[in-house]
């Protein structure tokens, strides 16, 4: 009989745990749900660069152990993506349900229209096949076949041998590994490089012979060959000039290639976005097509930006004046032409503290700036917190006010604690608190009872009076008022509020040209379209917190 009862209890326990599952199924309506499958592909790969092994033990050539990979690194820095025709899927979401029409992420986005997410262009292998066939075109940052490359320098590790690459790549999380060896013969340097591809499971060798004295200068082609191999796609030669203008920055798909005149740079074929930028000129942007076996040459013409605004700068001492990074001259300056827009003005003089001013020059307008230079050391003034703290500015009084609010808050906490302690001390002195005990005491000896009652009542009145006085001085904050969550004003609460208001007031009064800094930064080259107001940068405002 006992076994039957135990079995019944076990069955009832199982039913109690199983039945809620049906309610979950009904709530989420699992049988009618259907989602289209999707794939998330790899987004980055690690390129690990190791030191090189020497074939001899000559200590005078040890600098080449880290020197050679450092030179190769300078060529590989421009490698932002590697092209992988069949990228590795990270997560695969399988389809389920009847006639699925949208992926899980698309369903979530549809149910949350106010929540903005980056649209996913490639959801499955079919979309990827459309990219391969040319039916769909995407920028490299959206194309999963372009996998971002992150370079990890492991120059302090012992150079691995080719047969050790497989296990070491997994251990160090390296998708690609570059190592090698070198040998010095008389005045020649023989370099062997091994590029290990962990995904393909193969090692690609490279060799180059250079002179020992000019090895670093002559090793550029070796680094370029490795970079071309890592790019993983057919490349072509890119040559860009800017109608004789030197030093213009050249970008392809947002990747910096160099300065004009740009000659002999290799880049993967396909539709690309060319961007050329030089300070003082309008930016140039154009979509170009790089074709296999055909070098790309272009000579762009940059339009000069006219300085149609003026600035006049005066100061109490002769100082050097800079607008951004451009040197304007020494004060006083009278109607110097400058570009329109926001920028930062800096005045500098030996023995004086650098002064900064925000400049917002309107078209065909004039900006007048008068600066009073102060004696001191710029590095000490802006970096030494005590130096700035003790100059008694509005910001310092704001800090003092914050400290004052903390002091009054500490007093508020102490007074509330003392008020509670007054009640606690009185509670220990009140002996009879039970109604039946008081009634019995009164019946046995009325005279003694009245005396005792007077003493007890005096203790309670004194405690209540002291507690109320302390509480009245402290006040009550809303979060501590359990009765109605209202603010009860008291000297400590009022002074806390005044100190906080004073801190905010002093800080606002202290906002000057050196605290609120305006600046000018270049835009992401790939985000600028030629002809759109000729913007090559944007203005910004930031606060310089000096304490």
Automatic annotation (TrEMBL):
Keywords: Membrane, Transmembrane, Transmembrane helix. Pfam families: PEGA. The chain crosses the membrane at residues 397-417, 487-509. Residues 245-303, 311-375 form the PEGA domain. This is PEGA domain-containing protein.
């Amino acid at each position: 009989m006992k076994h039957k009862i135990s079995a019944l209890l076990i069955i009832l326990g199982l039913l109690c745990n199983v039945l809620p599952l049906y309610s979950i199924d009904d709530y989420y309506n699992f049988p009618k749900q259907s989602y289209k499958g999707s794939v998330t592909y790899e987004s980055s790969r690690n390129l690990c660069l190791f030191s090189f092994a020497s074939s001899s033990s000559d200590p005078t050539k040890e600098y080449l152990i880290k020197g050679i990979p450092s030179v190769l690194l300078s060529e590989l820095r421009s490698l932002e993506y590697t092209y992988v025709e069949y990228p590795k899927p990270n997560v695969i979401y399988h389809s389920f349900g009847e006639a699925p029409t949208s992926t899980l992420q698309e369903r979530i986005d549809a149910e949350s229209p106010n929540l903005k997410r980056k649209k996913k262009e490639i959801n499955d292998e079919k979309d990827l096949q459309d990219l391969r066939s040319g039916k769909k075109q995407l920028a490299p940052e959206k194309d999963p076949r372009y996998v971002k490359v992150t370079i990890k320098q492991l120059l302090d590790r012992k150079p691995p041998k080719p047969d050790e690459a497989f296990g070491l790549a997994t251990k160090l999380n390296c998708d690609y590994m570059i190592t090698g060896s070198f040998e010095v013969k008389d005045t020649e340097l023989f370099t062997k490089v091994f590029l290990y591809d962990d995904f393909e499971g193969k090692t690609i060798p490279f060799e180059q012979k250079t002179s020992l004295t000019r090895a670093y200068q002559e090793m550029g082609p070796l680094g370029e060959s490795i970079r071309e191999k890592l790019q993983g796609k057919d490349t072509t030669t890119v040559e860009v000039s800017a109608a004789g203008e030197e030093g213009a920055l050249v970008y392809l798909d947002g990747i910096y290639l160099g300065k004009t005149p740009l000659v002999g740079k290799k880049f993967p074929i396909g539709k690309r976005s060319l961007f050329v930028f030089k300070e003082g000129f309008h930016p140039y942007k154009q979509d170009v097509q790089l074709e296999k076996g055909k070098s790309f040459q272009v000579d762009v013409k940059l339009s000069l930006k006219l300085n149609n605004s003026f600035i006049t700068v005066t100061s109490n001492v002769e100082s050097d004046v800079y607008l951004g990074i451009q040197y304007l001259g020494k004060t006083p300056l009278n109607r110097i032409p400058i570009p329109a827009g926001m920028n930062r003005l800096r005045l500098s003089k030996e023995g004086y503290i650098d002064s900064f001013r925000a400049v917002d020059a309107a078209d065909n307008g004039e900006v007048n700036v008068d600066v009073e230079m102060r004696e001191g050391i710029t590095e000490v003034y802006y970096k030494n917190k005590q130096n700035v703290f003790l100059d008694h500015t509005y910001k310092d009084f704001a800090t003092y006010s914050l400290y004052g609010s903390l002091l009054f808050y500490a007093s508020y906490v102490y007074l509330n604690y003392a008020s509670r302690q007054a009640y606690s001390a009185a509670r220990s002195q009140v002996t009879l608190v039970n109604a039946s005990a008081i009634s019995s005491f009164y019946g046995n000896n009325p005279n003694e009872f009245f005396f005792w009652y007077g003493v007890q009542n005096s203790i309670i009145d004194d405690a209540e009076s002291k507690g109320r006085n302390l509480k009245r001085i402290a006040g009550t904050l809303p979060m501590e008022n359990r009765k109605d969550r209202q603010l009860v004003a008291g000297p400590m609460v009022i002074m806390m509020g005044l100190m906080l208001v004073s801190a905010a007031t002093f800080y606002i009064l202290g906002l000057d040209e050196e605290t609120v800094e305006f600046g000018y930064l270049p835009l992401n080259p790939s985000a600028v379209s030629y002809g759109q107001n000729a913007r090559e940068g944007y203005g910004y405002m930031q606060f310089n917190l000096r304490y």
